[in-house]
Amino acid sequence: MSTHSVTPVRELPFIGGAPREPHSSATFEAVNPANGEILAHVADCDAVDVDRAVSVAGAAQREWMSWDAGRRIAVLLRWADAVEQQRAELGETDTRNMGRVLREALGDGAASARMIRYWAGQVDRMTGHQVPANSGHLSYTTREPLGVIGVIMPWNGPVGSFCSRVAPAIACGNAAVVKPSEMSPLSALRLAALLSEAGAPEGLVNVVTGGGVTGAAVAEHPGIGGVTFTGSVPTGRRIAHAAAETFKKTVLELGGKSPNIVFEDADLDAAGRGALWGVFNNAGQVCVAGTRLLVQRSIAPEFIEQLRRRAARIRVGDPMDPKTHMGPLASQQQFERVSNYLRIARDEGARVLSGGGTPKDTHPEGLFVEPTVLTEVSQSMRVAREEIFGPILSVLVFDDEDEAVALANDVEYGLSANIWTRDLGRMHRMAGLVQAGTIWGNTMRLHHPGLWFGGIKASGQGSAYAEGAIEGSTRVRRVTIRFDEAAPTPAWGDLDGD
Ligand SMILES: NC(=O)C1=CN([C@@H]2O[C@H](COP(=O)(O)OP(=O)(O)OC[C@H]3O[C@@H](n4cnc5c(N)ncnc54)[C@H](O)[C@@H]3O)[C@@H](O)[C@H]2O)C=CC1
Ligand SMILES: NCCCC(=O)O
């Protein structure tokens, strides 16, 4: 367990380029899930705080767009450098605040810096086009920012979530009001400060801390032009309803129950390693976690034994320790949710092949759950259908491609799918038939800010990456100008004379 101890600090919302005393006097605690330590008392912002943030964001956005593109690009590049330089501090903040193991949290800072640089390169590419429609006329479209974007964040990868949403929003010329998750709000405050220090107008990116009430105030605010949300399906639905009232654009990246489909002709060693990392990384708190392993019957015994052997070597413990593979769950709420699914699995008749415990003896104050592999799972069981968001892998067996497709698609979600086979014909057939917004073949969780990433079915709409991020952050307008006086004008020709 970490020996690091802290005196809880008071964290204020970041509004107008600095921490500001909030209107609301309510607070909530930021807690280290590895040891129960209280890290901070964080302001629980109300609708007045959100309104203040939207107001300063509007003014900052106008200033931002009055700057030449080169000056805006320079700010983004300085911000990227700062995120990279501060990645140790940012990573430690996330590790303490939500239990992500430090060795991975450090990687988030470096990946986020690359992401910001990608978006810096897009700043002067928010172009429209010219349409040769009518002779004697020039018609063109412009792409312009929505104004203020509301960013409502989850808790499972705070640094990456902040940068992947804020960078495209501001690269497209917007300001942002960010509502981090109440379970991991701390790094967002630091990231907004780093952007200010990099030279952004005061108020370009503001952080209002709080829970669902604060988030709802963001989704409802008429001064916000678009919302990008990552989180659960029920909350995504609420946000879509709230946003519709004022016709906000929305990008919704919601839950998943991603299949990881392994055929007998696959590289079984790579597929086995991938299966474990894909579901147990970040203690399973990953939207695209491959939580359903669909394995072909002919190789099932051998493959499952490989999983059992390797899963036993996963080191669970202090997330600050560089040797640890898996830290605790992020919050008491999540710990109870996952513990409940362990009970449901047993009640439904699944077999616990490995794990299945919540090691309170070795980790009395921590919210740890063992990496758990469930076999003898059938498609009707809740553990095979519902998003758990914890380190639980459900193994199902199939005979042929048709059955694999049927099992893969028989859930409400459609975020991502992983397919392992050496047969490229089969790979492409499966990629066409499996219902998921992202298909990974012989790999998993490979991302790039220039590649579309979004869910279908209940897993959401739009993409917070690539062209989806631009679409979600901008609107298009059309201009038509008659420049040739010989070109006709639409008018009544018989209004003159007697
Ligand atoms: N797919 C993903 O990446 C994620 C999925 N989840 C799923 O959701 C489950 C519950 O986790 P939560 O953090 O409670 O998810 P959530 O979807 O309720 O919360 C996500 C964010 O939305 C905010 N929020 C809550 N109610 C809101 C409302 N009415 N209007 C606007 N914003 C609101 C929260 O404060 C937080 O910032 C998890 O167990 C997991 O299954 C959670 C986080 C990320
Ligand atoms: N926001 C998508 C990141 C998913 C992943 O951690 O792979």
Automatic annotation (TrEMBL):
One of its GO terms (molecular function) is oxidoreductase activity, acting on the aldehyde or oxo group of donors, NAD or NADP as acceptor. The keyword Oxidoreductase applies. This is Acyl-CoA reductase-like NAD-dependent aldehyde dehydrogenase. Belongs to the aldehyde dehydrogenase family. InterPro entries: Ald_DH/histidinol_DH, Ald_DH_C, Ald_DH_CS_CYS, Ald_DH_CS_GLU, Ald_DH_N, Aldehyde_DH_dom. The active site is at residue 253. It comes from Streptomyces caelestis. It comes from the Bacteria. Keywords: Oxidoreductase.
